[in-house]
């Protein structure tokens, strides 16, 4: 784009030279200095057509974006729906991730609100991180950083701004889907001044977060680097639940010639977590059992079905009648191992009874549990849901200017991503049940778990996932 010299200092100098003339003769003394100032060459500020710096923003108000086309363009000239989250805005709302920032956007669902009322429909977001944000109901947003596709979740520790473009945006380097694109701009080293910053953060749940940011000039206006480290231990209202993150970022900027800029940056990302599911545990017989304790005198698993007592029934608080049915499982894996010698490992549990789960549970049973029911602040899955991610990313770009109106950028990105997830409770609703069997499966040993409530996943097995991704991208842009 055309670049214009900055003239405010020259205008101020000329004004200072002429205004004193109307005062007194003594005011003419500084005139030679003003004339000397006006004779100095004017400083020209060159703006990169491939970069939008945070210095160009006015608080919450951005002035330009890159998503409008293949280069820097004024936001007023973009016809599409664009939401820009500046650095100052992110700091004021306390957002550290894109999911938290996009809660302030329109037509966007994030990991925190893209859920259903009866089950946790987000297992895919744990296996494929780019599926965590949905826009306009059209699917997942394409995630990019510096216009390279990435699996790394943006974080404020090394992000200058976030931009959200809703709708198709295939114009940007041939990328973009119907849902839109979430673009993050990484932090850059400053070639003119040093900067150090340390940030500590905590909340009432026990979260601890620390960021160390160092930008150091090695050769003024030539070479500088910026190193940022993040250590975060996040806790949640539902316990046990945690998220541990370790991230490191390094950016090097080198300007060997006036019109040539080389940038190389890399990031290490590691996270492990045990996030709680969103559905609350629902009563499926425990509360009625407290009012009317039932006991079923089960026979031995190998005993014939003839002559065994009938399965009992019970009524929920909304009047729904539920049935117990006989278990037909010949092989039940008991986990974790317990101290009862006759009930560990694989068990034959025929002739025991269990609740017949179905879709007829009334709304009256899905309610706030109060003691002695299941408490709100306890994670029903315990430590059975686990995820671990490891990502390494490297980016490099070379920008070359040809005169005042033409520039070329050549760049590449390399990224390796590994994800491991496991969850024994899957993602369906959770039911609070009670064991009413009088004996263990041998039909003779008293059941030490009689009358003890337990939580069970509703008709869904556990899940696990191991995935590896490899991204290699090259691009060349002429503006």
Number of strands: 25
Can you give the mean pLDDT?
76
Coarse shape: elongated
**SS-based class:** mainly beta
Descriptive account of the structure:
The chain has 479 residues and is mainly β. It has helices at residues 8-18, 31-39, 87-93, 98-101, 123-127, 286-291; strands at 64-65, 73-74, 82-85, 108-109, 134-135, 142-145, 148-149, 159-166, 180-186, 195-202, 208-219, 223-235, 242-257, 260-274, 282-283, 313-315, 321-326, 332-334, 345-347, 353-355, 385-402, 406-423, 430-434, 453-457, 463-478.
What is the gist of this entry?
By secondary structure, the protein is mostly beta strands. The chain contains six helices and 25 strands. The relative contact order is 0.12.
Summarize this structure as a short list of keywords or feature phrases.
mainly beta, 25 strands, 5-stranded mixed sheet, 479 residues, elongated, 8-stranded antiparallel sheet
Strand-helix topology:
Layout: H1 8-18, H2 31-39, E1 64-65, E2 73-74, E3 82-85, H3 87-93, H4 98-101, E4 108-109, H5 123-127, E5 134-135, E6 142-145, E7 148-149, E8 159-166, E9 180-186, E10 195-202, E11 208-219, E12 223-235, E13 242-257, E14 260-274, E15 282-283, H6 286-291, E16 313-315, E17 321-326, E18 332-334, E19 345-347, E20 353-355, E21 385-402, E22 406-423, E23 430-434, E24 453-457, E25 463-478
Parallel strand pairs: 6-9, 15-23
Antiparallel strand pairs: 1-2, 3-8, 4-5, 6-7, 8-9, 10-11, 11-12, 12-13, 13-14, 14-21, 16-17, 17-20, 18-19, 21-22, 22-25, 23-24
Helix pairs in contact: 1-2
